[in-house]
């Protein structure tokens, strides 16, 4: 017999905890697959992983960081402490079921709502008073599952972590022929300090990737006293990652062949900038981090090989090739809804970054990126809580679809990397629209002077009394 409750939240990272706080009065059940809060900050971080957003921007609106004016970027452990402390302060831990992985979701609502082709009219009741979804939960990896039923689901399973993106290789040129060790950064994150050092020490290491996890790993590798080759996969993107540090620290991009050949704004608009770790260029200057650009590569027995048939010897190849967050979603969201998760463009059609107009009684938090994903998630959860409280109504399905299509077109015009669905350039406009829809003031500073001269941050979006 299924256990019944109004709300379930799936995932207890930053997004899931933000949702739990805003929906706390409904006593939602929060299912978390692992034994910890924090998601990526627990499971995709290494010793050197730090936040790239200033702490005063990555902050819940009603819970300041202990040293919010400290200009250093917090480590992943500090972020976890902050999140646990927030969850404890607002008594949210009692809502979380740890080691509880959602393995299947079934639709048990009105069968007419599964007829999604050409759907128009009202979105439908958010809390209809009867179950719309059934959820199978596997606890502690046991063989059996417990079924639950809910009126509304909030999906917060994260864009990163859990499912690694592994490159596809030509026949007989994949990791199976390599005599060394191949691992993804997700596996590297699981190693303790000693095991990580042992893996890298005295080895020829190649890190494949150009994003934050690749850059951090290259430095860890250099610090383990190794020469590490950082191999960027796509020329145009590879170099762009470094532009922020160039601006901040005027570093030698040209010297290392890292100068971007597309506008910096495109990276900002697609949330693709990375703050470089402190010793990145000093390790490069010592010759401990080498760079290579390559569009195609594969394995040979002793290492990796490039298009021009040149070969590189390696003992360890680390794939910093990212994650497949949509695969995670598609694994649990049933048809016909699973196919609606993304537009053919690859972006998720989410009204206010939260509701897919064609998927009933389900919200998504954490799939729209910005400069501060915590702020983006929290504001959308506040919007959601007021929506379910009937403080405002959703527009018609057609209007919501028009809006999501318009946003997609704007993203496409702004950056060629639009698939990441990042709103960094429009964050403030989105926040204004959300505030107006909730009936809040969108000009949120206490004075015109502050409005003109002080930047917006999470605290400006504190509850309106
Ligand atoms: C290396 C790295 C650096 C980053 N740096 C920044 C930064 O500086 N600034 C910034 O704003 N953002 C940054 N991000 C983005 C980061 O992902 C977000 O800030 C935020 O932490 C995401 O939280 P989330 O809750 O949406 O997802 P996650 O942290 O991924 O949490 C999802 C949770 O869902 C659980 N889960 C998944 N599937 C299931 C299931 N089927 N059943 C039950 N539970 C499930 C997972 O175990 C996990 O705990 C970074 C990400 C990475 C990987």
UniProtKB/TrEMBL annotation:
Transmembrane segments: none annotated. Its cofactor is FAD. Gene3D superfamilies: FAD/NAD(P)-binding domain. Its EC number is 1.-.-.-. Keywords: FAD, Flavoprotein, Monooxygenase, NADP, Oxidoreductase. It comes from the Eukaryota. One of its GO terms (molecular function) is NADP binding. Belongs to the FMO family. This is Flavin-containing monooxygenase.
């Amino acid at each position: 017999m299924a256990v019944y409750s109004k709300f379930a939240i799936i995932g207890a990272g930053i997004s899931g905890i933000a949702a739990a706080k805003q929906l706390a009065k409904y006593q939602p059940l929060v299912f978390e697959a692992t034994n910890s809060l924090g998601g990526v900050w627990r499971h995709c971080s290494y010793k050197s992983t730090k936040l790239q957003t200033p702490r005063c921007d990555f902050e819940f609106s009603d819970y300041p960081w202990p040293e919010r004016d400290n200009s250093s970027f917090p480590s992943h452990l500090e972020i976890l402490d902050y999140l646990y402390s927030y969850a404890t302060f607002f008594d949210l831990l009692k809502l979380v079921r740890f080691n509880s992985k959602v393995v299947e979701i079934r639709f048990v609502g009105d069968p007419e709502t599964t007829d999604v082709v050409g759907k128009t009219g009202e979105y439908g009741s958010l809390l209809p008073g009867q179950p719309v979804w059934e959820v199978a939960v596997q606890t502690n990896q046991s063989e059996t599952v417990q079924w639950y039923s809910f009126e509304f689901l909030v999906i917060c399973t994260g864009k990163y972590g859990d499912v690694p993106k592994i490159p596809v290789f030509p026949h007989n040129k994949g990791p199976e022929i390599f005599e060394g060790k191949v691992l993804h950064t997700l596996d590297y994150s699981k190693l303790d300090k000693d095991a990580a050092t042992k893996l890298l020490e005295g080895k020829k290491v190649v890190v494949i990737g150009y994003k934050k996890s690749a850059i951090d790993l290259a430095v860890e590798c250099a610090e383990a006293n190794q020469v590490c080759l950082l191999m960027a996969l796509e020329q145009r993107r590879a170099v762009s990652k470094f532009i922020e540090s160039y601006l901040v620290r005027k570093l030698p991009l040209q010297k290392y062949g890292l100068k971007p050949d597309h506008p910096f704004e495109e990276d900002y608009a697609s949330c693709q900038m990375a703050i470089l770790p402190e010793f990145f260029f000093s390790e490069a200057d010592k010759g401990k981090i080498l760079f290579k650009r390559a569009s195609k590569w594969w394995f040979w027995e002793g290492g990796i090989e490039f298009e021009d048939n040149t070969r590189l010897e390696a003992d360890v190849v680390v794939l910093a090739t990212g994650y497949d967050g949509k695969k995670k979603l598609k694994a649990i969201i049933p048809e016909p809804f699973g196919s609606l998760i993304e537009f053919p463009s690859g972006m998720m059609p989410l009204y206010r970054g939260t509701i897919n107009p064609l998927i009933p009684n389900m919200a998504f938090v954490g799939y729209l990126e910005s400069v501060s994903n915590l702020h983006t998630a929290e504001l959308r959860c506040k919007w959601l809580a007021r929506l379910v409280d009937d403080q405002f109504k959703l527009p018609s399905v057609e209007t919501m679809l028009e809006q999501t299509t318009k946003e997609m077109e704007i993203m496409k015009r702004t950056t060629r990397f639009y698939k990441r669905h990042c709103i960094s350039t429009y964050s403030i406009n989105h926040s204004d629209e959300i505030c107006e829809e909730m009936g809040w003031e969108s000009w949120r500073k206490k004075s015109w002077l502050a409005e003109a001269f002080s930047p917006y941050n999470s605290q400006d979006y504190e509850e309106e009394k």
